[in-house]
């Protein structure tokens, strides 16, 4: 999942980037409101973390302009302002959650995971699709209750497909949401990840969890359990 961090404190921004990347997120960053507004308008993100006290353009205005442009990715406000009026203003501008500094990184990550799940229509971190289970909190995948060993990139690819289960996801969309902007889009790396996932999730070739939709992309086709 790709996250945009909008924070003018260089040290905090780097700390957040390091912490989130170590947990499997793809992270891009901005240090001012004008740049952040442009990035949110031009590039696809799964969620954004936005400070309110930004140079050039306040964080609340950045969020408001994103929403006016029909950008629907979840937004978490991260700020030192703890007054209820600031919280109300941020939420009414279109933010989805609010975290006051100082904070614990574990709480931030838990909130981000919850926002991603809700955006995809899931209430809990554990999602079951037939014999395949994805635990987004523990970043664990099981097949018939046995752990499946995945690389970080394999996990990211599978997580995105499962969070969009039943939808055909183009190679371009997968690349944009999982990798940095300088990722080699002409490489066959994505095809390699898909092939490995099929081998690991369907060793007997009976499930067919990931379908190739010719000319369009890939689709996770297992049905969710209630």
UniProtKB/TrEMBL annotation:
Record domain Response regulatory: where: 2-116
UniProt KW DNA-binding keyword: yes
CDD domains in the cross-refs: REC_OmpR_EcPhoP-like (cd19934), trans_reg_C (cd00383)
Transcription regulation among keywords: yes
Matching InterPro entries: CheY-like_superfamily (IPR011006), OmpR/PhoB-type_DNA-bd (IPR001867), Sig_transdc_resp-reg_receiver (IPR001789), WalR-like (IPR039420), WH-like_DNA-bd_sf (IPR036388)
A single GO cellular-component term on record: cytosol
Annotated keywords: DNA-binding, Phosphoprotein, Transcription, Transcription regulation, Two-component regulatory system
Regions recorded as binding DNA: 124-222
A GO MF term: phosphorelay response regulator activity
Pfam families, sorted: Response_reg, Trans_reg_C
Domain OmpR/PhoB-type as annotated: residue spans: 124-222
PTM sites of type 4-aspartylphosphate: 51
A GO BP annotation: regulation of DNA-templated transcription
SMART domains according to UniProt: REC, Trans_reg_C
UniProt name for this protein: DNA-binding response regulator
Taxonomic source organism: Marinobacterium nitratireducens
Gene expressing this chain: phoP
């Amino acid at each position: 999942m790709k996250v945009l961090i909008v924070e003018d404190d260089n040290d905090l921004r780097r700390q957040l980037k390091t912490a989130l990347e170590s947990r499997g997120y793809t992270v891009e960053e901005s240090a001012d409101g004008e740049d952040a507004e442009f990035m949110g308008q031009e590039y696809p993100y799964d969620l954004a973390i936005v400070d309110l006290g930004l140079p050039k353009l306040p964080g609340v205005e950045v969020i408001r302009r994103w929403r006016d442009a029909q950008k629907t990715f979840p937004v978490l406000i991260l700020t030192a302002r703890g007054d209820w009026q600031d919280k109300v203003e941020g939420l009414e501008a279109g933010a989805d959650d609010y975290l006051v500094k100082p904070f614990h990184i574990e709480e931030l990550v838990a909130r981000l995971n919850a926002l991603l799940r809700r955006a995809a229509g899931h209430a809990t971190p554990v999602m079951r699709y037939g014999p395949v289970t994805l635990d987004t909190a523990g970043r664990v995948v099981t097949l018939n209750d046995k752990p499946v060993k995945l690389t970080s990139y394999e996990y990211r690819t599978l997580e995105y497909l499962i969070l969009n289960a039943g939808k055909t996801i183009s190679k371009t969309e997968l690349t944009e949401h999982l990798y940095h902007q300088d990722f080699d889009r002409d490489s066959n790396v994505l095809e390699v990840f898909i092939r490995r996932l099929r081998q690991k999730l369907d060793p007997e070739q009976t499930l067919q969890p990931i379908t190739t939709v010719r000319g369009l992309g890939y689709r996770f086709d297992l049905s969710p359990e209630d």
